[in-house]
């Protein structure tokens, strides 16, 4: 189950408006509305006839649902499209101003707050970098950030903010050595109930999920998910993480940890194994930069740093590609998926270089008995985790089977 917290907070705006919560509607009506919204998101736009064909609902039922969603401000009409015969069809698309969500990413080197609309467009963002995350400063930044985002909207739009979604790593207090932080500082997170704490500070429902799973949900909802309905997702940030999408849904597993590729054992070159997280994460590149007398925090601030540190970046990519290839082949030997989506907190040209190197490494692995698969680049990049956070309230309010998206690790 997702970690949820709702508090009245400032102004008492602790829940979505009645038409978005579906509180007075039957379960079937609410399901059908969410189904229509999900299909339109997937296809970009659909006429009523197309909705009826895809859902199996009657034309009259579709008309009533679409009319209601349009009245609620969640759908808008597009220009009529003329066919060969008959009346032109009128497609409907998501109304970008129908809802807004705020995403908060708490990472090991940076925190981000962004404002996103119903169509997935990022309207504003703020970033804070640090050598390690301390709860007090991060929470202060989060509150300042969402107040700035809220102030950018007019009063009517502010009432359409459906929640605050938080994407953060699990058990952040256990990464003292890798992050290089004082144990006493990271240990403070052990006693912070982030959902309850934030719910006491903001006027919206708060949802929290693992950062890699949230990034995967963002890719599914706003990225390549429209073209690929089954894929293994890898996101390389300070640490590498991932997710699994099956039949257009985020598969979380019994404990909510499915897709945790960072924990997968891979050969260490010395006859034993270590976890993928220790050889395919940006923190290892940071260490190389520090040893070379370079400022590793430029990696989080400047795209140009990835070019300036070219030889170190290239070595890091070479060392990461082989273990990543082993991990994804091992994963796909257990779960038959046709696509791997590769993304990370680095510029697109670095992502492309990594994809090429991983593809080369995969070709060198004996894959007899396995189905072929494609490796594609993610569509979101560095914003994936913060957008994933912002996805959580959107999915909770408007997606079918939203619990599958929002299940948090036990």
How is the secondary structure organized here?
Layout (H helix, E strand, L loop, with lengths): L2 E3 L12 H4 L5 H17 L2 E2 H8 L3 H13 L3 E3 L13 E4 L5 E7 L3 E8 L4 E8 L5 H17 L3 H4 L2 E8 L7 H4 L3 H4 L7 H6 L6 E5 H12 L8 E6 L3 E7 L2 E3 L13 E3 L5 E3 L6 H10 L6 H4 L3 H4 L1 H25 L4 E6 L3 H16 L10 E4 L6 H15 L3 H5 L4
Helix pairs in contact: 2-4, 3-4, 10-16, 14-15
Rg over alpha carbons: 22 Å
Annotated CATH homologous superfamily of the largest domain? ATPase, nucleotide binding domain
**What characterizes the major β-sheet?**
6 strands, mixed
Strands, total number = 16
Question: Spans with pLDDT under 50 lasting ≥5 residues?
Answer: 1-25, 403-410
Physical arrangement of strands within the biggest beta sheet: 1-9-8-5-6-7
Global mean pLDDT: 88
Number of helices: 17
Number of domains: 3
The name of the CATH topology of the largest domain is Nucleotidyltransferase, domain 5
Q: End-to-end span in angstroms? A: 8 Å
């Amino acid at each position: 189950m997702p970690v949820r917290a709702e508090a009245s907070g400032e102004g008492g705006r602790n829940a979505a408006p009645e038409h978005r919560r579906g509180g007075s509607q039957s379960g079937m009506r609410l399901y059908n509305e969410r189904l229509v919204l999900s299909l339109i998101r997937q296809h970009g736009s659909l006429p009523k006839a197309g909705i009826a064909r895809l859902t199996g609902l009657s034309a009259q039922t579709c008309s009533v649902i679409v009319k209601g969603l349009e009245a609620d401000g969640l759908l808008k009409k597009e220009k009529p499209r003329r066919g060969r015969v008959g009346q032109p069809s009128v497609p409907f698309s998501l109304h970008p101003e129908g809802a807004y969500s705020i995403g908060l990413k708490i990472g090991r080197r940076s925190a981000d707050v962004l404002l996103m609309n119903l169509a997935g467009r990022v309207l504003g963002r703020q970033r804070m970098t640090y050598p390690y995350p301390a709860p007090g400063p991060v929470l202060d930044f989060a509150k300042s950030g969402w107040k700035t985002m809220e102030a950018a909207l007019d009063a009517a739009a502010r009432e359409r903010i459906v929640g605050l979604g938080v994407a953060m790593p699990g058990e952040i207090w256990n990464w003292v050595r890798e992050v290089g932080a004082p144990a006493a500082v990271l240990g403070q997170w052990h006693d912070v109930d982030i959902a309850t704490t934030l719910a006491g500070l903001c006027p919206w429902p708060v949802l929290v999920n693992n950062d890699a799973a949230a990034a995967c949900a963002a890719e599914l909802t706003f990225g390549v998910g429209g073209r690929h309905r089954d894929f293994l997702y890898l996101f390389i940030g300070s640490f590498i993480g991932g997710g699994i999408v099956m039949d257009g849904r985020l598969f979380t597993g019994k404990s909510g940890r499915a897709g945790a590729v960072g924990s997968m054992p891979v050969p260490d070159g010395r006859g034993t194994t270590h976890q993928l997280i220790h050889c395919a994460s940006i923190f290892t590149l940071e260490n190389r930069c520090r040893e070379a007398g370079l400022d590793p925090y430029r990696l989080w601030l400047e795209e140009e740093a990835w070019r300036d540190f070219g030889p170190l970046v290239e070595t890091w990519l070479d060392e990461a590609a082989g273990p990543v290839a082993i991990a994804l082949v091992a994963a796909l030997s257990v779960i038959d998926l046709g696509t791997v989506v590769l993304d990370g907190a680095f510029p697109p040209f670095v992502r492309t270089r990594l994809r090429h190197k991983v593809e080369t490494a995969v070709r060198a692995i004996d894959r007899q008995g396995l189905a072929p698969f494609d490796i594609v680049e993610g569509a979101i990049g560095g914003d994936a985790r913060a957008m994933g956070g912002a996805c959580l309230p959107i999915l909770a309010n408007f997606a079918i089977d939203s619990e599958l998206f929002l299940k948090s690790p036990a």
